[in-house]
Design goal:
about 220 residues, mainly alpha, 11 helices
Length: about 220
């Protein structure tokens, strides 16, 4: 079952987040990879492990890369899971867990994706992607018609004020209110996003949605 076909309105906010944060993770992996490659003959085993794990993650993300351990024919979520098993306790394995959750979401496995996002957030309390993981959890709940989705989006707005994730959570919450025919609350939320200074893209989307609301 394709997620985009099943819940187009509820998932549109998450797709943009997914693309943006994948780029952040890829950049982080490239940084780790570059640092490790810079070490020549006397590499310690830990550094070698990071290099090998990083190579495997890159092979999943970008088909221009390949390694013996990455099976290009399996689902992306399965490939990321295998990286975590093969390269435990590495930064790349942590990145792989975040990407596995994203891949599960892509594959329409919302319950599993939520569990992995939750695990990632618990295991990485200082991660710059923690807000993104919270947004992923909320999007999964919304996709499953879970009434707790609203409280999850509200929590993101309160905990991560001034972040792109808070803006996207506000817009997603507005969509839920719009679907529930709560025009007054939807208008309030869309107006907040339409005047935000963090993302012109989401401001534009909010303005479009405001135009769809009845007077």
């Amino acid at each position: 079952m394709e997620p985009a076909e099943t819940h187009p309105d509820r998932l549109i906010d998450f797709w943009e987040w997914l693309v943006e944060n994948r780029r952040q993770v890829v950049l982080a992996i490239f940084v780790v990879f570059a640092v490790v490659v810079g070490v020549y003959i006397n590499r310690q085993s830990e550094q070698l492990a990071e290099e090998e794990a990083g190579e495997d993650v890159l092979a999943v993300i970008d088909n221009r890369f390949s390694t013996e351990e990455v099976d290009s024919k399996s689902q992306a979520s399965e490939r990321f899971a295998k990286i975590m098993v093969n390269h435990p306790d590495t930064a790349a394995a942590s990145n792989a867990k975040f990407l596995q959750a994203s891949a599960l979401f892509d594959e329409g496995e919302f319950t599993e994706a939520e569990a992995v996002f939750s695990a990632y957030a618990s295991e990485n309390p200082e991660s710059p992607l923690r807000a993104a993981a919270a947004l992923g959890q909320a999007a999964c709940k919304a996709s499953l018609d879970d009434p707790d989705a609203e409280s999850k989006y509200e929590a993101i707005r309160n905990l991560y004020t001034g972040t792109p994730e808070a803006v996207q959570a506000t817009l997603a919450l507005g969509r839920l209110k719009m679907a529930a025919k709560n025009t007054t609350k939807a208008k309030e939320l869309f107006t907040v996003v339409s005047t935000n200074r963090i993302s012109r893209f989401w401001a534009s989307e909010a303005n479009k949605l405001l135009g769809q609301l009845p007077e």
